[in-house]
User: Fold 2-amino-4-hydroxy-6-hydroxymethyldihydropteridine diphosphokinase from Psychrobacter piscatorii.
Amino acid sequence: MHKTSMDLNMATLTQCAPEILQAQSVVEAVLALGSNYQAEKYLPIARESLAALGEIRLSTAFQNPDFTATLEQPKPDYTNQCVHLVLNTPMSLQQLQQTFKTLEGNCNRHRQVEPNQVRRVTMDIDILMIKLATIENSLSKGLTSKSISDWIVMANRYPFKAHEIVGIEELTTFTD
Assistant:
């Protein structure tokens, strides 16, 4: 048994706005999957599509109430799961985001909702954290840069929701 390469210290993670990282080359990502409509159908499709991009490790899938639901406006529960994805081929954050939008569309995701209509989310894929490619050249040999080698939290996703924390913690303690 060995621990996965996802050793994380949540207290020391670097946060960065995704807009700043659009052109950076990503090699690993931690994702949050969510579905409040036919999750049993769409989660396997999403996982299969993600596995085609690289090696994946999955947290347990959790069913959670929609935190925006009220007594006056009830909403269906979400099924959520975290995924650690090690890409076969590095891609820019912008390409990765576009790839996930395409995967959501392949799961029949529709973003337009009529007013007062319950929002059915077949698949939502959010990037929680990324690991950038380490750039090796004659100037960087022997040097380590925290911003290049460590996990970077997407500032627009932090602080993490309770189910995301549980999923990330589960992924970091995964052994095989």
Summary: The chain has a mean pLDDT of 85. The helical segments are 39-51, 93-106, 146-149, 162-172.
